[in-house]
Amino acid sequence: MANDGSEEFKLVSPSISNEGRLPRQYTDEGQGAKKNISPPLEWYNLPQGTKTLALVVEDIDAPDPDGPIVPWTQWVMVNIPPSAKKLPEGFSGKEDMGEEYAGLKEGNNDLKVPGWCAPKLPTHGHRVQFKLFALDYEVNLGNKVTKEKLLDSIEGHVLGEAILIAKY
Predict the structure, then answer these.
(1) pLDDT at 3 (0 to 100)
(2) What is the pLDDT of the chain when averaged over all its residues?
(3) Transmembrane segments in this chain: where (predicted)?
């Protein structure tokens, strides 16, 4: 349950069921215009006091060539306004996001560029974790937003977390 006694803070996608398969158009295996586009996401029941949202998407089964499994960051977003209820399909990389998304910033993925980095894997069976954080403050990380900087800065400011897992 959320802090206000309502239902649980949830992250969902109209295109992906939790623990379901990540459709091809959201991967590097799609075709033409239906390739490497960010999936649609929606959220419900924000915790009371939420000032902004932050999103981190990772392949949580990515192997490090020299060692253990190290999550691969595919997408980072900060300062998603709580008044926004969704990110539409193909939202990543848009020049004009509209007034509804004022203040939102896309961070760098593990390719060191901002925006959605669609999975392209030598083997299938990996899990892609979409984690949405409800925060009690607006994140200010300067020009270069990374997952590491985000996670360090939000410590003690997380009101809730919502997770969606897709299989690739």
Answers:
(1) 47
(2) 88
(3) none
State the Cα–Cα distance between residues 76 and 98, nearest whole angstrom: 19
Mean pLDDT of 8-24: 92
Question: Is the pLDDT score of 4 beyond 50?
Answer: no
**Are 54 and 78 spatial neighbours (Cβ–Cβ below 8 Å)?**
yes
Rounded to two decimals, the pTM is 0.90
- In three-state form (DSSP H/G/I as H, E/B as E, the rest C), the secondary structure along the chain is CCCCCCCCCEEECCCCCCCEECCHHHCCCCECCECCCCCCEEEECCCCCCCEEEEEEEECCCECCCCCECCEEEEEEEEECCCCCEECCCCCCCCCCCHHHCCCEECECCCCCECCCCCCCCCCCCEEEEEEEEECCCCCCCCCCCHHHHHHHCCCCEEEEEEEEEEC
